[in-house]
Design a protein that fits this description.
heterodimer, A: alpha+beta, Alpha-Beta Plaits, 4-stranded antiparallel β-sheet, two-stranded antiparallel sheet, 3 helices, 6 strands, B: alpha+beta, two-stranded antiparallel ribbon, flat
């Protein structure tokens, strides 16, 4: 089953991580892959100053340019994994976060892990009940 | 340049898309591609009940299972685009959100648009650099 992991942290407090963390993550990704938790895609995101939000509310569209200074934490990057189970995915994510604890003392943030639907599974907010009601 | 668009909305009262909306979306994606804004990947995400958050704070790693009931809005899906400029990305996203306004009465939410870093570009969270390099 596939999962998307989004890493969030405080953009204002971001500091360049040490090389030791890079090396440890590379090793972890390799080890996870051998265990059947395979990273199939990943992207680092640029600072929110190069981003924007397009919001629809009350029938009006509002476009807000970055940076997202009001956000406590922002997404810094994402990765997509093919794992054996949710527990398996969480085990490796926990180890990923533990590497931050070891190599970047004081770093605070989280990984949001979300499952990608398989064929026939309804995405977020679209259960078959509400879909039937809409048609 | 590449952008990721993440669509967020309140999970509890999400309104499922109608057939007309899905058709309009298909048409918009085609029009955008012809104009040079090409969708290179997209996925919906399962309900947050299938997800989890792994947080590192004050030197402790905590795993919190979904659903994320406290979140006002959650990411429901993402799409990645290859496009010539940020202005074009804004314009196509505006049209995408406008389709929601036209086809889904009362829908509220936003698309967060973030640029994906290319080789040598500055990252929001430098820790992801190694993940990208690992692929």
């Amino acid at each position: 089953m596939r999962f998307m992991s989004m890493v969030k942290s405080n953009e204002a407090k971001a500091s360049p991580p040490p090389k030791a963390l890079f090396d440890a993550i590379n090793e972890l990704v390799e080890e996870a892959s051998k265990d059947g938790c395979v990273m199939v895609q990943a992207g680092g995101l640029m600072p929110t100053s190069s981003g924007m939000r397009v919001r629809l509310a009350g029938g009006k569209l509002i476009i807000t340019d970055g940076p997202f200074t009001e956000a406590k934490e922002v997404i810094g990057g994402y990765a997509i994994f093919d794992a054996k189970s949710k527990a398996h995915m969480l085990k490796w994510t926990e180890r990923f976060m533990n590497l931050h604890k070891v190599h970047m003392p004081g770093w605070e943030g989280e990984c949001e892990v979300r499952q990608i639907p398989e064929m026939g599974q309804e995405p977020c907010g679209q259960n078959s009940e509400s879909r039937a009601a809409a048609e | 340049m590449r952008f990721i668009s993440m669509v967020k909305f309140p999970e509890a009262n999400a309104v499922p898309p109608s057939k007309a909306f899905l058709e309009a979306m298909g048409q918009l994606t085609q029009d955008a591609a012809k104009a040079g804004c090409v969708m290179v990947g997209a996925e919906g995400l399962l309900a947050t009940s299938a997800g989890a958050r792994i947080r590192l704070a004050n030197g402790r790693v905590t795993v919190i299972d979904g659903p994320f009931a406290e979140a006002k809005e959650v990411v429901g899906g993402y799409a990645i685009f290859e496009v010539n400029s940020k202005a074009e990305m804004i314009e196509w996203t505006r049209r995408f959100m406008d389709l929601h306004r036209t086809h889904i009465q009362g829908w509220e939410g936003e698309a967060e648009i973030r640029q994906i870093a290319g080789p040598g570009e500055k990252l929001c969270d430098q820790a992801l650099e190694s993940q990208v390099a690992a692929i």
